[in-house]
Structures are given as C-alpha cells and as structure tokens.
Design brief:
Blueprint lengths: L1 H21 L3 E4 L14 H9 L4 E8 L5 E3 L4 E2 L2 E2 L22 H8 L5 E6 L5 H18 L5 E5 L2 H10 L4 E4 L6 H7 L3 E5 H6 L2 H9 L2 E5 L4 H10 L3 E4 L2 H12 L1
Parallel strand pairs: 1-2, 1-11, 2-6, 6-7, 7-8, 8-9, 9-10, 10-11
Antiparallel strand pairs: 2-3, 4-5
The protein binds magnesium ion.
Length: 257
C-alpha cells in the first residue's frame, strides 16, 4: 500500500512537471522590439531584434492598400495619407523613423521565414465587411505563398476578418482582440484564443478560468507595467504582449524558476 502511494505520488509529480512548464507565460514583442537603438515600430529591424532576444513572438499590424498590396504599419494614416484608400505607389517611398521604407507584407514575412520567432499577425479592420473578408484572403494567400503557415498566428479586432481567417486557415491560431465576446462565444465561433486588453481581463477575472477550461489561449495587451506583467502571468496568462519584452522576459522567468 505504501509503495503504491509512493508511485502514485511520483506519477503525479512527473505529470505535473511538464504541465507547469507549459503554463509559463510567454512574451510577445508588441510591434517588434522597437524601443532600442536603430529600431522602429513595425520595421523589419524590429522583427529581427525581437528574434535576437528570443521572445515567443513578434507582433505586427497589416493594412491592405486600395490596389491590394498588404503593408506592415500600425496607424490608418501615414503622414496624413489613408493607407487603405490609396495605392501602394503612393506610400512606398515613405520612411519609418529608422529610415526603413514601410515594409510590404511580402518582404516582412520573407524575413520572418528566416527567423524562429512566431509571427503574430494583426490584420487591421478595413472599411466594410466584404473588404475585411478580402483582407483576410489576401493575408492568408501571402502567408501560404511565403510558406510561414506554421509560424504565423493571427489576431484581429474585426469579427468578419476573424471568421474568414478561421475559414481559410483552419489549422492556424486565430485570436480575437476586441474584448466584447466571452470565451464561450469565441469557442463557438472557432477562435483558438482571446487576446484582450488588460482592463477587459480586470473586469472579467472569471474569463481566465473559462478560457482555460475551453482550451483557449489567453494573450493580454499591451502590458508595460512590470507589476501588472507579474500579476497577469500569475493569474494564468499564456502570453503577455508588451513594449518592454526584455524586462517582461526577466519578470516571467523569475516567477517560474
Ligand atoms: Mg497591433
């Protein structure tokens, strides 16, 4: 009897070890690792630097121009020019703060393919439901063309885009950003995770458990306060999206070591 109890204890320890390692929060560099010399948000340099610091993933934002060229940039406008309403030729010569040109998605993913970091692909909202679905199609086609399907995880605020991403890339991770759907609703729609602002998770602390129970991943943005990073990692966030990825990795590693 005593032996049996011992083996059961040993077995439960063996089972619990990989689970606890798996539950460690991982860090995603928001718009790449850009708060450092020579970098800029959503630049190819920021993607390379995110890979250099070994984060789980590097997030970036994608808009589709009027002539269907996908580009990597955060804001809807660049120097007052609305990206989605103009042709690529109208923005192709514009510089990022580090003097890089605005990257095309093609160039960005081609670089990403050489790296090990996950490509956390935020598809921005477009003007109409049909345009959002089209943006999703253009995105998935490019990911397939470059051959980074296994490295790419999609996130979006737009429900039409999200549903189309799920339909076109059924094996991909697709998480929803907008914070207005419960884990049960997301699961029902086919999302693989939620990716919510930290204030949303503060308002709905029950969503940590609900998401876990449903097998959804929990990513939280954009967490730049070290104490909050610590708190959310302890509460069970799978991913922390942050502008301070080096510090965040340090905080998370101290928690789990
Ligand atoms: Mg983003």
């Amino acid at each position: 009897m005593k032996n049996k109890a011992f083996y059961l204890l040993l077995l439960s320890l063996l089972i619990s070890l990989p689970i606890s390692a798996k539950e460690k929060a991982q860090v995603i560099a928001h718009r790449g690792y850009w708060k450092t010399e020579g970098s800029a948000q959503n630049s190819i340099k920021a993607l390379q630097l995110a890979d250099d610091i070994n984060v789980y993933g590097s997030e970036f934002d994608v808009h589709i121009t009027a002539d269907n060229v996908a580009v990597v940039f955060h804001d809807n406008e660049v120097l007052g020019i609305p990206i989605q309403s103009v042709n690529y030729i109208d923005i192709m010569e514009l510089n990022l703060p580090n003097k890089e040109k605005i990257p095309t998605l093609n160039a960005y993913l081609t670089k990403g393919r050489l790296l090990k970091t996950k490509l956390i692909f935020e598809l921005k909202a477009h003007a109409t439901p049909e345009r959002n679905r089209e943006a999703a199609r253009i995105s998935v086609d490019m990911v397939n063309k470059i051959g980074v399907q296994d490295q790419t995880e999609y996130i979006t605020f737009d429900l039409d885009a999200g549903k189309e991403l799920i339909r076109l890339a059924p094996n991909a991770q697709v998480a929803y950003l907008n914070g207005d759907l419960s884990p049960a609703q997301l699961k029902e729609l086919g999302f693989t995770g939620l990716d919510y602002h930290h204030n949303v998770m503060k308002e709905h602390p029950e969503w940590f458990k609900e998401a876990k129970d449903l097998g959804l991943t929990i990513n939280i943005w954009t967490v730049n306060d070290p104490l909050l990073i610590k708190e959310l990692a302890k509460k069970g966030a799978d991913f922390i999206t942050t502008d301070i990825p080096v510090e965040a990795q340090e905080i998370v590693s101290q928690l789990t070591d």
